[in-house]
Design brief:
The chain is α+β, with helices and mostly antiparallel strands. The protein folds into two domains: 1-38; 93-191, Sandwich (Immunoglobulin-like), CATH 2.60.40. The chain is built from two helices and nine strands; from the N terminus they run αββββββαβββ. It has helices spanning 2-43, 156-159; strands at residues 93-96, 101-103, 108-114, 123-131, 134-141, 150-155, 164-174, 179-183, 187-191. The protein is flat, with a radius of gyration of 39 Å.
């Protein structure tokens, strides 16, 4: 009986340890193969393939190849595009309506915002509405009209927006070309079905 118990213990030991030993042996052989391949790849130099070089036609004696004139072009100097009359710390702060506001397509809505500096001549705020593939200028304003703040009341019945989501943004434009000087964050507005 003791012999049988001893045999069972030995068999149980080998059944639990043998898979681990086999795994260690396999990993060791695998690492040796990988090391051998990497060391032979580093140690051997590939033989260079010889490619025929194009032959040069010899020039007659006493003549030289012509020297071609090089055209030297001046490299453009990068310059910053100045933003006329816009303070560096200027930001258009949107006060309303809140992001993701909703209204019927024939509704009225007041957009209001603040700007820290007075507008210069030929500067104006432009309210842009983007919906699907179209971009519309909804309104413009060139002076504060709500105390020191700006307010633009928009009647969407005249614009006829499509039911769905649109994006609105305020832009400060200026100059004869009405170039974009500064832009606010973009906010969404949802036009509900009637």
């Amino acid at each position: 009986m003791q012999m049988l118990k001893k045999r069972l213990k030995t068999r149980r030991f080998w059944l639990t340890v043998a898979p681990l030993l086999i795994l260690l042996v396999i990993l060791g052989v695998y690492n040796l193969l990988i090391l051998r391949q990497s060391s032979t790849a580093v140690a051997t130099n590939p033989t260079p393939t010889l490619t025929p070089r194009p032959t040069r036609t010899p020039l007659p004696e006493g003549t030289r190849a012509p020297i071609l004139q090089a055209t030297i072009l001046p490299s453009p100097t990068p310059t910053l595009t100045p933003r006329p009359d816009v303070p560096e710390t200027a930001v258009i702060t949107l006060l309303g309506p809140p992001d993701e506001s909703s209204l019927p397509p024939n509704g009225r809505l007041a957009f209001y915002w603040s700007y820290p500096a007075p507008l210069q001549p030929h500067q104006q705020f432009v309210l842009i509405l983007r919906q699907e593939e179209s971009v519309q200028i909804v309104g413009t304003l060139d002076q504060p009209n709500f105390g020191e703040l700006y307010q633009l009341l928009v009647d969407f019945d005249a614009i006829e927006p499509v039911v769905g989501t649109a994006v609105w943004q305020l832009q400060l434009q200026g100059g004869a070309e009405e170039q974009l000087l500064l832009a606010s964050e973009e906010r969404q507005i949802l036009f509900l079905p009637e």
